[in-house]
């Protein structure tokens, strides 16, 4: 029986023990008759042993507390408000400076994907588009049908546009915005005194149904919740005692429409 | 969630070991692992369900290390000379490692980074060639050629002394 020629790659397979039994025997037989190659293969093997010996102690060390996986998971599930505000601020800075690569930076890497991330994304959108005097919205309220069509297409499901006119807030329009967790719909409202509110919605991957939670950093307030897989956040400079009933009203309207 | 803990937690010792070969400084290496774990937790749902979790987590670690190296290259040098001098070598010496092991680690350090990572993933972490290719984002053929070059270069370095032991005579085999 003729044996297939032994390849250089198979010598490494032999060393790393990834050959099937039969081929392993064939390589071994080849090495028996080729001492120079056998010496080289023996050297590869020795390298493996030495590497393992040299680094083994690291894997035997007790795991330091910062690498406690349960704690990392817990932290991402219930992030402290303060930390995600910091992350939101960082996100705003990054967005403003166009630093896309910044998303891989540490602070943002820690951002969870649930409702806290949603709140972060909503406040980032408010910070960017709220003060914009040139083009705060892409599609104006007068083209409401087009706005609904666009956001529905991008989010893959309809998102109703809440009506806050009873409370003195008029719809300006909206746009689709990018988040790390997919497209989001942003609707903007204003009153007659220059106060703007941002209503933000996107599909949720986790936290599909969540009760309303407040957020605040002194200047900006918000309320965030999730219902049947869609997450919502209402953000603005309005004091909590006024914003909260508005958020309740939005939630009520949306639950009626979906 | 439990899934995640069961699959990722046992990998932490190996992640720390691989990180230490990439970053040397113990604390910087653990920082890297922490970033890696945080990212793995937050992106757990995005991984391919049929994929191997070990390959996935190692590639997160590797990519974080690469982007960190890039940042460091542009910015000021963050590792002081003494860091590189007393890094693992002193630790190993203090733990009574044999001279041969010390030589080996020094020689591994002399390899180009692209060869070193292949060698360590395969030879130390026991990843298959396909897994190593996935972690590094390169074709399997490239893994093979880098591995082969790394091992041959190590033979030269260990044998001839290379930069590791320049005083060792090269003619000892000559009769």
Key attributes of the depicted protein:
heterodimer, A: 258 residues, alpha+beta, Phosphorylase Kinase, domain 1, 7-stranded antiparallel beta sheet, 9 helices, elongated, B: 175 residues, mainly alpha, Rna Polymerase Sigma Factor, Chain: A, Arc Repressor Mutant, subunit A, 2 domains, 10 helices, 0% strand, globular, disordered C terminus
The largest sheet of chain B is:
none
Portion of residues within helices of chain B: over 70%
CATH class of the largest domain in chain A: Alpha Beta
Beta-strand percent range of chain A:
15-25%
- Strand proportion of chain B, as a percent range, falls in under 5%
Major pleated sheet of chain A: 7 strands, antiparallel
**Helix percentage range of chain A:** 40-55%
Strand-helix topology:
The complex is a heterodimer of chains A (258) and B (175).
Chain A: H1 8-15, H2 21-33, H3 35-60, H4 69-77, H5 81-97, H6 106-109, H7 115-129, E1 139-140, H8 144-155, E2 170-179, E3 182-190, E4 196-203, E5 210-216, E6 221-227, E7 230-236, H9 240-257
Antiparallel strand pairs in A: 1-2, 2-3, 3-4, 4-7, 5-6, 6-7
Helix pairs in contact in A: 1-3, 5-7
Chain B: H1 2-8, H2 12-23, H3 26-42, H4 53-74, H5 81-86, H6 88-94, H7 99-110, H8 113-124, H9 129-136, H10 140-160
Helix pairs in contact in B: 2-3, 2-4, 3-4, 4-9, 7-10, 8-9, 8-10, 9-10
């Amino acid at each position: 029986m003729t044996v297939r020629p032994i390849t250089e790659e198979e010598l490494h397979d032999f060393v790393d023990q990834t050959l099937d039994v039969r081929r392993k025997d064939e390589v071994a037989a080849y090495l028996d008759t080729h001492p120079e190659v056998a010496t080289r293969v023996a050297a590869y093997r020795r390298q493996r042993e030495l590497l393992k010996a040299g680094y083994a102690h690291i894997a035997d060390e007790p795991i330091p507390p910062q690498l406690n996986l349960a704690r990392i998971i817990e932290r991402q599930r219930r992030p402290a408000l303060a930390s995600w505000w910091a992350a939101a601020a960082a996100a705003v800075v990054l967005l403003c400076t166009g630093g896309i690569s910044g998303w891989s930076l540490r602070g943002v890497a820690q951002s969870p994907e649930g409702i806290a991330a949603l709140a972060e994304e909503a406040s980032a959108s408010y910070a960017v588009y709220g003060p914009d005097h040139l083009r705060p919205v892409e599609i104006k309220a007068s083209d409401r049908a087009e706005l609904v069509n666009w956001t529905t297409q991008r989010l893959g499901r309809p998102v109703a546009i809440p009506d806050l006119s009873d409370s003195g807030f008029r719809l300006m329009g909206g746009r689709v915005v990018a988040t790390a967790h997919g497209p989001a719909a942003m609707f903007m409202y204003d009153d007659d005194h220059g106060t703007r509110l941002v209503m933000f919605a996107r599909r949720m991957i986790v936290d599909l149904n969540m009760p309303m939670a407040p957020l605040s950093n002194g200047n900006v307030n918000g309320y965030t919740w999730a219902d049947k897989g869609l997450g919502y956040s209402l953000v603005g400079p309005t004091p909590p005692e006024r914003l909260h009933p508005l958020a309740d009203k939005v939630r009520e309207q949306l639950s009626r429409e979906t | 969630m439990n899934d995640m803990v069961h699959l990722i937690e046992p990998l932490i010792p190996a992640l720390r070991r691989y990180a230490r070969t990439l970053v040397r400084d113990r604390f910087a290496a653990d920082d890297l692992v922490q970033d890696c774990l945080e990212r793995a937790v937050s992106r757990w749902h995005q991984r391919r369900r049929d994929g191997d979790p070990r390959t996935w987590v190692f590639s997160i670690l590797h990519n974080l290390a690469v982007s960190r190296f890039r940042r460091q290259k542009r910015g000021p040098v963050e590792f002081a000379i003494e860091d590189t001098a007393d890094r693992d070598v002193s630790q190993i010496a203090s733990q009574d490692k044999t001279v041969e092991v010390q030589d080996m680690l020094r020689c591994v350090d002399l390899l180009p980074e692209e060869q070193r990572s292949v060698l360590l993933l395969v030879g130390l972490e026991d990843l298959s060639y396909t897994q190593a290719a996935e972690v590094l984002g390169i074709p399997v053929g490239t893994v093979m050629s880098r591995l082969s070059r790394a091992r041959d270069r190590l033979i030269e370095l260990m044998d001839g002394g290379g930069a590791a032991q320049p005083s060792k005579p090269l003619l000892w085999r000559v009769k």
